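Table S2 (continued). Query chain:
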Amino acid sequence: MNDIPKIDEVDRQILDILIDNTRIPFTEIAKQLLISPGTVHVRVKKMEDAGIIKGSSLNLDYKQLGYSFIAYVGIFLAKTKKIKTVLSELNAIPNVTVAHITTGRFNVFCKLRAKDTSHAKDIIFSIDDIEGVSRTESMISLEESINDKKRLMHSIFNNL
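Corresponding output:
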C-alpha cells in the first residue's frame, strides 16, 4: 500500500479552494488564507511533485457542443490476452471517453459520447469491428444525474 504524502492544514485549505476553482489565481488563494502568494506557489509545487496534484482539468458542456448522447458499452472479448490491443483500438476512437478493464460480466466497460442515436450506432459498430471483440452490450444514458468529483475530493482531504 502506498504511503499518503504528508500535507498540513494550509495544504488542505489550498486544495479545498483549488477543488472548487482550478483557475483561481494564487494571489486570490493567498488573500483568502492570509498567506503570501509565494507560499501558495511553493506549496502547490510541492503537492505537484508529490503527485497529489496532477495538472488541472477543463470541464466542457458536451450538450452545448452537440454531443449530448451518452451510451455505456460493455465489451466481451474472445480472449482476454487481446485486452491491450482492444484498449489501444478503443483509444483511437475519440468518442470513447472512458474505458475500464473490469471483472464480472464484461471484460471492458466504456463510456461514449455521440451526437445522436445514429452517430452512437456507428461508434458501437466500430467497436464491434475491433479484432478480439466477440460482442458488445450497450446501454443508453437517459440523464446524467450525478457527476461530482468535488464531493469525494473534499471528503478525502478533510479526512487526511
